[in-house]
Each structure stands twice: as structure tokens, then as C-alpha cells.
Amino acid sequence: RAVSSRLKAVPDHLWKAQELIRQKPEGIPPVWLEQAITAARTGDQFFKSLEKHPKIIDAVNRWPGLLKEIESARKSLQGFARFLENDVGHLAQGSAASGEHHFNKLLQLKHGLDIDHQQLHAFGMKLTKQIHCELKQLCQELAGHHDIAQLTAQIGADHPNPEALISSYREAMQSAKAFVSENDLMTLPAAEQLDVIETPVYQRHQIPFAAYMPPMHGDSRQQGYYYVTPVVDQQSLSEHNFLSIKHTSVHEAYPGHHLQFASANMDSVSSSWPRLLNASATMYEGWAVYCEQLMVEQGYLDQPLNRFIMLKDRLWRALRVMIDVDLHVNQLPENEAARKLCDCLGFTKEQALADIGWYTHAPTVPMGYALGWSMINTLREQQMTNDSFKLKAFHDKLMASGSISLAWVIKRQFGVEAMNNVVSKITA
User: Fold this and answer.
1) What is the DSSP string of 24-71?
2) What share of the chain is helix, strand, coil (3-state, %, to 5)?
3) Strands 193-198 and 210-213
4) 405 CA to centre of own chain
5) Within 13 Å of residue 300, how many CA atoms lie on the same side as its CB?
6) Is 194 in a helix, a strand, or coil?
7) What is d(CA 107, CA 283) in angstroms, rounded to the nearest whole number?
8) What is the pLDDT of residues 368-411, one digit of tens each?
9) How does DSSP classify residue 403?
10) 3-class state of residue 154 by DSSP
11) Closest CA to 400 of 390, 386, 412
């Protein structure tokens, strides 16, 4: 009945969406229009696939009208895609940029940072140059040359077959979880579960590689989902090489996103509504990037090339700091932003545009990865000067305030002075 009620609501919802869009189509950013058209078409494919889903087949036996409701929802999505393409496409000319005022307010009020976009951009530029230099130097040590693209291609050649992609991610996820537990790196939530599944069809245009869907607050099982997008060509397959699969599993699963979100959801303090409604990428993404470094340090990612993957991914996150500001404040066109990812990281145009696409919806989220990682490292360096420092206790304190601004987590768990010292290093 829940599926039926949602399917019945689709036509009316999309009709009202058309009415709203007709009021000011010229304000729609072209990049958002393209995403909406793709989402409508892939949503249609998803609804079509439901007809063969075992649970839907079983439900049809008890609810014969379900197939008609699926067909009605499909026709509504098809019509919505045509409306966007034919009636709105030639009119859409809006900007996706948030603007300087809103961007700076987000830095201050959402992320608790007493900095502006210019200071953030300078931080990103400095970090990008530093990491790029380290990456070239490491490339020379490992391969005898500075050609980052060549070494990346060499690593990309060692990958699972497409049919073994999901099982390869599942094995990496399970081994990372076992390592965290055996080495007592942090307190594991009492109840949590993570399944590796293919990225749903309707989300693949937004998730070129892999992503994580966290459990809901109040879910007793804390069931998370680790999405892996099926490959469409050899270039895509190279991104799912064995080394990168382990790094991604550390970031998305253990001890990264899944443990952090499950821990936040299970604690009575960190799962309060103000915290749940004010998540900051400086915390949840900063933690996940820090985990990549942690698992190199602790010996889980123990191959010489693991450090190369770590630094290359860190370069990606450093670039995001600058691109975040450039898109939303400096009016950088999306195609030019995508070209930066292609030139610096070797992304295909499609992969780069998919990545840039979500940046346009989420000002100050892309910057949170590298900034949060840098803040956690600075904090850890300071805390390690104490004779009583214990790594597990440090991680547990970081987890104890939920997913709010990392600056506020530090203030609550480590004190005002620690927070001020960490934030001041951003502009040093």
C-alpha cells in the first residue's frame, strides 16, 4: 500500500511542478535543467524495472492495480521530461551560483568558521600546490618519473571484472571493518549493518563511482547502503581498480561515513534534532578523508602505491575547495570547472560534469572534505602533545557530538582554545 500511495501521488506532484516552473523558467540554471531531464528519464527506467522486481511481482498478485499505477507514473515522468526539454529548455538561463553573501553566511552559520570565501580560496590554492608537489615527488620515488597520469593508468589496469565489481567492494568493506575492530581504532556502534548494492538507475547520473546512503535516525538496525555504480566502459572500470576499491571502502564504510553516521544516530546527545538538521561536511566528509590517512598510517592500506592513491584523492578534495568558491562566488562556468578535474585528475568529461553537477546544488559542501581533514590533523597534532593522548579516545571524542560543524565539535569536546588554534591555522 505504501508503494501504491506513492505511485498514485507522482502524476499530481509532477503536474504541480510544471505549474511552478512555468512561473519563472528563465531563472532555472541550465545545468539543473539537464539534471532534471536525466533524472526524469532514469526515473522512468527505474519504474519500468519495478515490474520485474520479486516483491512487486508478489504484490501484484494481491494488488492487481499496481501495474497500472506504475504505468501511470511512467507516463507522467515521460511527459515531465518532454515538458522540460521542449517548453523550458530554450528559456532556462539562470545561475546556480549562491553568491558571495550567502556563501560567507554558510561558512559562518552552518560551519562555525570565522573566515570568508577569499581566505578559504587561498587555503585551497596553497593546499593544492602543496599536495601536487608531494604527489609528483612520490611519483618519482615509485615510478622514476613525474607523470602522474601514467602511474594512474598503470594502477587502473589492475581491476576486477565488471561482474565481480560488487563482490570486490563487499570484500574490501568487510576486511576494513575487521581491521578497525581488531586494532581497536574507535568504539564500534552496538548495532549497525552495511550492504553493498548497485547504485539505483535514477541516481547514476549523479554518482559516477560510489557513494553512501546513511541509516535513518531511530533505525534500530542502523542499516546503511554502500552504492557502487556499474561500469559503462573501460575508462570507468579503471577507476574501480583494486587499490582504489580499498580506499573508497575506508572512506564510505569503515571507519569512514558508515561508522560516523551510525555512531551519531545511536547516541542520545549527538542525535538531537538540532544536530541532525545541521550536519556539516567539515565533520562528516573531513572525518572520511582523515580515515584514508589513518588506515595508511595504521597499516591497512600497506602497499607503496596506496600513498599515491591517497595523495591523488586528497588533491581532488583540495581542488574542490577552490572550485566551490569559484562556482558560487566567482561565477566560473560549470564546463571550465569540469575541465580542471579533467586536466588535474584525468577524469573523463562525463565523470567531471557529474561531479561538478552536485557542487552546484551544495555550496560549501565540496570544500568540507579537505578543510575538515586539515582541521582534524591540526587538532590531533595538538592533542598528541599531551602525555595522556590515546588514539581511540581521540576518535571517540570526535564522534561524540554528531555531524555538526567540526569547529563546534572541537569546541564542545576539546575546548575553546583548541577550536581557536585549529581555525586560525586555516588562514595562517
Assistant:
1) -GGGS-HHHHHHHHHHHHHHHHHHHHHTT-HHHHHHHHH-TTHHHHHH
2) 70, 5, 30
3) unpaired
4) 16
5) 30
6) strand
7) 13
8) 999 999 999 999 999 999 999 999 999 999 999 999 999 999 99
9) T
10) helix
11) 412
At residue 270, what is the residue type?
S
pTM for the complete prediction? Answer: 0.94
Residue with cell 535513518: 216
428 within 8 A of 126, measured Cβ to Cβ: no
Phi and psi dihedrals of 181, rounded to 5?
-70, -50
Give per-residue pLDDT as tens, 13-44.
Answer: 999 999 999 999 999 999 999 999 999 999 99
Find the length of the chain: 428
Residues 257-281 as b or e (16 or more Cβ within 10 Å = b): bbbbbbbbbbbeebbeeebbebbbb
Burial 194-219 (b: 16+ CB within 10 A, else e): bebeebbbbbbbbbbbbbbbbbeeeb
User: Measuring CA to CA, which residue among 39, 33, 41 is closest to residue 96?
Assistant: 33
Q: Is 7:70 a contact under the CB 8 Å cutoff?
A: yes
Alpha helices in 346-405 (DSSP H): 349-361, 368-383, 391-399
The letter for the amino acid at 361 is H
Spacing of C-alpha 298 from chain mean position = 24
Backbone angles phi, psi at 408, to 5 degrees: -75, -35
Residue that has been written with the C-alpha cell 584525468 in this structure: 346
Side-chain half-sphere exposure of 141, counting CA atoms within 13 A: 10
Whole-number CA gyration radius for the chain? 22
